[in-house]
Amino acid sequence: MAGFKTFLLKTNAMALAVGVIIGVAMGNVVTSLVNDIIMPPIGVLLGGVDFSSLVIKLKDATVDAAGKPVPEVDFSYGSFINVVVSFVIIALVVYIVASLMLRPAPEAPAPPTRTCQFCKETVPADATRCRACTSAI
Questions:
Q1: Residue 33 in contact with residue 89, Cβ under 8 Å?
Q2: Contact status, residue 81 vs residue 54, Cβ threshold 8 Å
Q3: Which of 17, 82, 90, 116 makes an SS bond possible with 130, Cβ 3.0 to 4.6 Å?
Q4: What does the radius of gyration of the chain's CA atoms come to, in whole angstroms?
Q5: pLDDT tens, residue by residue, 29-63
Q6: How far apart are CA 34 and CA 31, in angstroms?
Q7: CATH hierarchy code of domain 2-103
Q8: Are 48 and 54 in contact (CB under 8 A)?
Q9: In this predicted model, what pLDDT tens digit does every residue of 66-105 receive, in sequence order?
Q10: How many CB atoms neighbour CB 92 within 10 A?
């Protein structure tokens, strides 16, 4: 058990777990944002359309020979539109967060160099011999 605890605390497993948990929570927030805030005004602008209820009915509800009800079959493209909008928003947020968090580290200044007078190879400024031709410099 101690080895497993060390693995969780000293590797990226903990960071991955935290990322997954935050990602799921963010997904729920974005789903609510899309369904409750973004899509209703868009629906109003398009003539009072409720995207979650947009369906194409493929088969009406019926009753089979044994008297059991057979449910209708719908193609729910409105729900698909909501999911696509949610995906686009999540992808945008992940892109923005990743671009802010994963900025490249500033490059360290290059150490001072000089040129070997014999072979014209660049060597560190404090070198006493050229690494290419081994001449004393």
A1: yes
A2: yes
A3: 116
A4: 31
A5: 888 888 888 888 888 888 888 877 888 988 888 88
A6: 5
A7: 1.10.1200.120
A8: no
A9: 889 988 888 888 888 888 888 888 788 778 877 887 777 7
A10: 11
